[in-house]
Design brief:
This protein is mostly beta strands. 10% of the residues lie in helices and 42% in strands. The longest helix is centred in the last third of the chain and has 14 residues, at 359-372.
Length: 388
């Protein structure tokens, strides 16, 4: 049976549904895994005025996708476990209220509060000049609206809810890149999956960077939580990160006092023969967690961001697979980590976020990571920080 398909936005036709709902009852799919629903609404009030979101409830996992914001994922929840964090930014801010050049190019932070933010595509990392061009923090893709969006319900072989979209990052005398993404979840599962393709639509080569900024706070984050991954090599980003005993770089101590500043660590991970790998945030009691799974050939560089600031300041950690490290683009170019897409060339990436709800699931993830760990990690104490 062909999938049910509904176009929700198509800028070429000047069309966008502001409100729409489809559920298991309407689909005739009141299955043994329970009821599900997909709802599109347009937010109103404050800085979220005009922001369109899609709420997906697969019968177990609930999450919010934001087409107005580069198909970011604002939050998720399952069985009382929140995937996300408490940002000082509480609204899903519409791009019209975000000036990326604000505060010396750090305007990206004016709307930062997602579970998953996309960074790129022309560049990501800190702001600053790169030749004649002045880059803003983490690029533009996270504040660009989807020009196409549809929903599919696939009945076979496994019932699946799918959002598909296209987001263009293009301007005259600049890049002409397109992100096509498929965000999917199986009915009743605890996992959501992103399948992304970046296409160079220009007829000249184009540099490209992409980082998945996946952010967690309590209850998974807290004193005693830990980050676990099959680490091949890890180094502190800068002198601040190197202040910590590097034997404890992956451990969390809980919210700190005013004046705390972030600590960032750069790593490369082991993977299986197909490139598959994963990283785990294990809760303080060890009985729950979240896994970020991806392909290390597609996303070979990993960043762990630890921001153990006071709770109301933004207590959060980021698990961040990427095509390069989030240094300034000029640094990454010099290091040979930038990707260049040929005319018509593509870069594909698959990223999955899964909630672990039991101690047994956590132990299974730990075993998988242990199986991937071919040898002891190389833990470096010298910061990688590389000035321009």
């Amino acid at each position: 049976m062909p999938p049910y398909t509904k176009v929700l936005t198509d800028s070429s036709q000047g069309f966008s549904l502001k409100e729409w709902r489809f559920d298991s009852k309407e689909a005739g799919d009141e299955s043994r895994k329970g009821s599900w629903s997909v709802t599109k609404v347009c937010l109103a009030g404050g800085r979220q005025e005009g922001t369109e979101i899609v709420e997906i409830d697969n019968g177990a996992l609930k999450f919010v996708v934001v087409p107005t914001r580069g198909m970011c994922i604002w939050r998720a929840e399952i069985q009382g476990i929140r995937l996300g964090w408490d940002s000082p930014v509480t609204e899903i801010v519409h791009p019209q209220f975000v000036d990326l050049t604000d505060r010396g190019g750090k305007g990206w932070l004016n709307g930062f509060g997602e579970l998953l933010s996309r960074c790129g595509l022309e560049s990501m990392g800190p702001p600053g000049p790169d030749g004649a061009q002045v880059l803003t923090q983490h690029g533009r893709i996270n504040y660009l609206p989807a020009n196409y969006l549809d929903f599919q319900f696939e009945r076979e072989p496994t019932p699946r809810l799918v959002l598909r979209s296209a987001v263009d990052e293009s301007f005259m005398f600049g890049p002409h890149l397109r992100l096509t993404t498929e965000i999917s979840t199986e009915i009743g599962s605890s996992e959501l999956v992103l399948n992304d393709t970046v296409i160079n639509l220009a007829d000249i080569p184009q540099e490209m960077e992409s980082l998945y900024h996946i952010n967690f706070g309590p209850p998974l984050l807290g004193a005693g939580a830990r980050f676990v991954a099959p680490v091949k090599r890890v180094a502190p980003r800068d002198a601040r990160a190197a202040e910590v005993d590097m034997a404890k770089w992956n451990l969390y101590v809980g919210p700190q006092s005013a004046g705390y500043t972030e600590q960032v660590y750069f790593a490369e991970l082991w993977a299986d023969q197909q490139g598959s790998t994963q990283a785990l945030l294990q809760s303080p009691d060890g009985k729950s967690g979240a896994v970020v799974a991806f392909n290390a050939e597609q996303l070979p560089y990993f960043t762990l961001w630890k921001n153990e600031a006071p709770l109301k300041t933004g207590y959060v950690t980021g698990l961040e697979p990427a095509t390069s490290y989030p240094f300034h683009r000029a640094v990454e170019r010099k290091a040979g980590r930038l990707r260049t897409l040929a005319p018509g060339g593509t870069h594909e990436a698959k990223v999955a976020i899964k909630a672990l709800l039991t101690e047994a699931e956590v132990q299974a993830s730990l075993q998988r990571i242990n199986d991937l760990q071919r040898e002891a990690p190389r833990v470096e104490t010298t910061p990688m920080d590389s000035p321009l």
